Amino acid sequence: MAKAALENACWDLEAKKSGVPLWKHLGGVQAEIPCGVSIGIQETPAALLEKIEKELAAGYQRIKIKIKPGWDLNILEIVRGKFPEIRLLADANSAYTLADVRSFQRDGSVQADDDRTTAGA
Q1: What is the arrangement of strands in the sheet containing 36-39, beginning at the earlier edge strand?
Q2: Where in the chain are the domains?
Q3: How many CB atoms lie within 10 A of CB 69?
Q4: pLDDT of residue 116
Q5: At how many degrees (to 10) do helices 73-82 and 45-57 cross?
Q6: 9-13, 18-22, 113-117: which range is least confident on average?
Q7: Where are the beta strands (DSSP E) in 27-95?
Q8: Which of 50, 58, 75, 114 has its C-alpha lying 20 to 30 A from 28's C-alpha?
Q9: Residue 65: how many CB atoms within 10 A of its CB?
């Protein structure tokens, strides 16, 4: 990490000497990028909706919520119902096994032995 910190400092110094922002010096084309926020499991669905509303008002454009067995599909449906247009992600942090896949199937497009259901897919 010390090497990375030193390298980042060198890039920053080079950009400052060139008189351009670091993002532009590195080839960036946007002054701002859409960012998101990760929201942990809340006490109630209402508390989650309130937290999402607060983060959207703060300017976040993507919302990632933590899920776990018992706090998953129903919660996602509630959130999607309240905020149908947001970029929504769900993060289970390895809370599920391959045996749990069937509970998420809607159209049979993912099979329990499908490579897409494994970590890193």
Answers
A1: 36-39, 62-66, 87-91
A2: 34-95
A3: 11
A4: 45
A5: 40
A6: 113-117
A7: 36-39, 62-66, 87-91
A8: 58
A9: 22
